[in-house]
């Protein structure tokens, strides 16, 4: 399925990476839709199109990076341009519009999480708490240590929480990628494509959907 057609609640705003990279700030959030069977399963459990959560930020002198923790890759920083080239149209960028959120502090937290282990046990816990009930399955306490094991949206939420940003839930371990998108304190900016030709194709698909 084309990523532009998977937006059920609104139409996307397609933009090329080169056109907007300089507008991205430390602490902006990039949420990714699934393109695999595993992603479809995550969407089914969480009820959201989003299956992965990351944070964006800058490495000196002028390289935009994605900070994330991912299954079989753990906590890491990767080049944003390269990731968008591999997955054009899959990443939606959001910005925190809540004061006194410190985007630099949030990005520093995610950078310090690079090398940490992926939270496999935490993924099992969020599933169990959603299926069996929060009263029956205790939460994993929040930690302010960036090196703690976490899954993707748990890491992003911990970075937001420790930097004065919005808190979607009491416990980081309960936050799925779709919960971040539902926050009234996060504003959708645009969807990243690798080049203008892909942007034009996406706009054509959107126009065809409206016919």
Report on the structure:
Helix 4 crosses helix 6. The protein has a single domain, classed as endopeptidase fold (from Nostoc punctiforme) (Alpha-Beta Complex). The longest helix has 15 residues. 36% of the residues lie in helices and 22% in strands. It is α+β, with helices and mostly antiparallel strands and 211 residues long. It has eight helices and seven strands. It has a seven-stranded mixed β-sheet with strand order 1-7-6-2-3-4-5, sandwiched between helices.
Which key phrases capture this entry?
seven-stranded mixed sheet; endopeptidase fold (from Nostoc punctiforme); 22% strand; disordered N terminus; alpha+beta; 211 residues
Instruction: Give the CATH superfamily.
Output: endopeptidase domain like (from Nostoc punctiforme)
Helix-strand pattern: EHEHEEEHEHHHHEH
Widest sheet, order of strands: 1-7-6-2-3-4-5
Q: What is the SS-derived class?
A: alpha+beta
Strand % is 15-25%
Count of DSSP E strands?
A: 7
Cα(first) to Cα(last) distance is: 19 Å
Radius of gyration: 17 Å
Largest sheet: 7 strands, mixed
Query: How many distinct folded domains?
Result: 1
